[in-house]
Design goal:
Length: 217
Amino acid sequence: MALEKKDLAMMREEYGSRELHRSDLSPLPMAQFAEWFNEAREVELDEPNAMSVSTIGLNGFPTARTVLTKFFDENGLVFYTNYESAKAKEIEANPRVCCLFTWLPMERQVRIEGIAEKVSTAESLKYFATRPRHSQIGAWVSEQSKVVSSRSLLLAKFSEMKRKFSEGEVPLPDFWGGYRVRPTKVEFWQGGQGRLHDRFVYDQLEDQSWEIKRLAP
Ligand SMILES: Cc1cc2nc3c(=O)[nH]c(=O)nc-3n(C[C@H](O)[C@H](O)[C@H](O)COP(=O)(O)O)c2cc1C
């Protein structure tokens, strides 16, 4: 059912359930991220590890898609994908990416700009081994981002791969693996009353230390 334009314009939430003060912040952005991420898990948000990753398309337009973060630490965030997908080609041409987490029930957003690089095969293998078997086979089946004439073709290829790998472990495809996004700039946004939101940005300096600044909402 289509919303009246008027109704859509009236859709708004009042924020302000929490505040973010400079004194709350960890000196390191990924430590601060860990704190917020753990809080998102504690309140049982749906898929808090889902993030939108933006790349610069080969045509110059920015482009974005959702992926799942499977690991993070002080060195950055890791997600897994097909190394021949559109995003992979874009990262190869320009490794500058932006990751966005939107945790609406907590009135929070985290924006992470950084440089994407492939993780080692050993790291991808370690993660691949933990995936359910059908997901491992799925990685072999999908030529991600390419045009496919029908779903039945995909299903036929899935059956073929299932037969091929009917015994033993499913090997890691050489066209599949992880990217680590090493942050260079991280912004934490906490919704505030009267749209006076709290925003703090961590900028990485040349000596690798981090400078924290409050931004106007
Ligand atoms: C909730 C959610 C999680 C997703 N997780 C992944 C993921 O971890 N890795 C991945 O390659 N694609 C994932 N996708 C699919 C991507 O959004 C995207 O369609 C796909 O990676 C192809 O993107 P590309 O053509 O820009 O390379 C996910 C989609 C959604 C909605």
